Amino acid sequence: MVYFLGILISLAAGFLVIRLLAPQRLDPILRILLALALGLGMDGTAAFYTHILFNQFNRWIPVGLMVLGILLLSFFLDKNVREQASKSTKKAKNKPLKNTTFWGEIKLTQAHAWGLLTLGVLAVPLAIGAHYFPLGGWDAWSCWGLKAKFIFLGHENWKDALAPGLWRSNTQYPLLWPLINVWFWDLGGQFNQAVPMFNSIIIALLTAGILLFGLWELTGMLFASIAAAVIVTALPLGVLFATSQYSDGLLGLYLLSAFMSFLLAEKYDLPKLKILGMIFLGLLSFTKSEGLVAAGIAALGLFWHERSDKKELKGLILAFFIALLPTIIFTLFFAPKNEAFINGLTSMDKPATWDRLLFILAYTGLEFIRPQWNFFWLIVIGGILLAGKKLWRSTLGVIGLTLILYMGVVTAYYAVNTFFAIGWWLNTTLSRILFALVPTITLWVGSGLRSKDA
Amino acid sequence: MKKLKIIFLICLISAALFDLLAAYAQAIAQLQDRTSIPFHSLGFKFMGLENIFKGVRTVGYYTDKDLNDAQAIAQFEQAQYMLAPTVLDLNHTQYHWVILDCTGPQAAKEAIQRLGLTPLKINQGIILAYNPNGI
User: Fold this and answer.
1) What is the C-alpha separation between A74 and A84, in angstroms, rounded?
2) pLDDT confidence of residue A112
3) How far apart (Å, rounded) are the C-alpha atoms in residues A164 and B4?
4) A82 pLDDT more than 50
5) Alpha helices, DSSP H only, in chain B?
6) Between A394-416 and A289-305, two packed helices, what is the crossing angle to 10 degrees?
7) CA distance linking residue A46 with residue A41, whole number of Å
8) What pLDDT does residue B135 have?
9) Which of A108, A123, A275, B45 could link A112 by a cystine bridge, Cβ 3.0 to 4.6 Å?
10) What is the ipTM of this complex?
11) How far is CA A226 from the centre of its chain?
């Protein structure tokens, strides 16, 4: 029960931010899904500033911060709506603008029912899978859940989680996913294993929903959008990783949400939605080290893409850095050095070799044809061939380049860091890295197939 | 081009249906699976120790198992998860409390004698010992 109160608080906070940023047309269900994704990130950020930065472990402080935020945002939105209503009354009496209500326009159609039904159908295997692995996968209890427990139960001693002896838990990794779960434990007043389990299901459904309703908004093709969301979520690997309580699901959600915001901003000429996109990129950077790399590449690409409008660009840079602040603070002042790193370029004992690089490339090639992907990459290749040049123009071009550069950086890191035996390392991590990219790849190809100018 | 797009759409919907059926088949298999108990965890044998370790920041964790073996390292990491926020210092025994996870009773007995520990509790092969000279 308390968990659902937490979801409501997160949803309300995210909803108010999105209403302030995008008062104009945006599908109501998509708005709610993006709002919850944002709200969860705000929970984690509130827990970061209170618990981590200011060392405050009274559980009501991060919860109160969110409630205070909701009150302030409601005040601003109400003021905003009143101003708009007064303007619209002056312009056209008896015909107020559709967006001058607090909630905005909410009009549900049969298509929404199909979309929601799909999410309901997808929720069943996710819930069963999550129940089957209540503690999640290996990295859930050895890394993400462990850090959350240290922060929530260890209070002032939470930094013990960063002790060199715990190097196996990737002590240098950012903390957004653990902190989101900590915020829910703060609200409930106790550690509860069900929280990360439920949150991982919510994140998987948010990813599916944002992809489904977003693609529908962008392409107008409902059943193709439903099919795309089903493929992404119901992949054998998709269900496995979604219920593993890893941060990769969150990485996938924020990367998708960021680019979705930009594509919608472009389609409906809603420049403020780009600010939302930048906030999502900031949150993405706090999910994992890989998220920071992806956020950096995507942000640079988008800044370059938006370079013609200097005023808008300043706003985007500011929004990105505000959302990036927890990552910067954590990386500079808290994160220990990566104990699982050997620079193969300088190491005599474990040098990076051409054979290692060739092995990585061959393994990656073979990964795409492994049966666990159920023809997914074949469909992607088909889509890329059909969409052709459209995929390399405008925002879609930035998405394509981000994906390529990100995989380039990941490959280089596999090659240079010779700490782990490469076969084992690729076997345990590569599919997870690709899994986090799958929603964005689907958005990229799906939008490209219907894009006119892009 | 239009025909190709229609073929692509059919492939997309077919793949979605295939994935969905596979996901449901997997879910049904998980529901019917009674051999690998869903709530089973290697870390459950450490439950209860968190009450003894209240306020203790670090305890020792001694094992003679091969840590390249996935099962051994998984057991250590699940123990760490169960007992957080107490840190388990792997193969360091200078603390008041030491957990022993040995390959057998004889190996455990030898380790206890060698390290000068006093065994207090045993649960499924896991021994909690006290180190009178611990820090």
Assistant:
1) 15
2) 94
3) 56
4) yes
5) 2-32, 49-52, 70-83, 105-115
6) 150
7) 9
8) 80
9) A108
10) 0.91
11) 20
CA–CA gap between residue A396 and residue A398 (Å, rounded): 5
Question: Beta strand pairing status for B58-63 and B97-101?
Answer: parallel
Examine residue B119 and say whether the peptide bond preceding it is cis (omega within 30 degrees of 0).
Answer: no
Q: DSSP secondary structure string, A189-257?
A: TS--THHHHHHHHHHHHHHHHHHHHHHHHHH--HHHHHHHHHHHHHSHHHHHHHTTT-THHHHHHHHHH
Residues in A touching B30 (Cβ below 8 Å): 128-129, 132
Residues of B in contact with A122 (CB under 8 A): 20
Q: A25: exposed, middle or buried (C-beta count within 10 Å: 0-12, 13-18, 19+)?
A: middle
Task: Provide the sign of the torsion angle of the four alpha carbons A362, A363, A365, A370, taken in this order.
Answer: positive
Mark A99-138 as b/e (b = at least 16 C-beta within 10 Å).
Answer: bbeeebbeeeeebbeebeebbebbbebbbbbbbbbbbbbb
Whether the per-residue pLDDT at A169 is higher than 50: the answer is yes
Q: Do B11 and A382 touch (CB under 8 A)?
A: yes
Q: Does residue B44 have a pLDDT over 80? A: yes
**Count, residues in chain B:** 135
Residue among B38, B84, B92 minimizing CB distance to A132: B38
- Which residue from B16, B30, B39 is facing A230, i.e. has the nearest CB? B16
What's the pLDDT tens digit per position in B80-105? 999 999 999 999 999 999 999 999 98
Positive or negative torsion for Cα B50, A247, A173, A338: positive
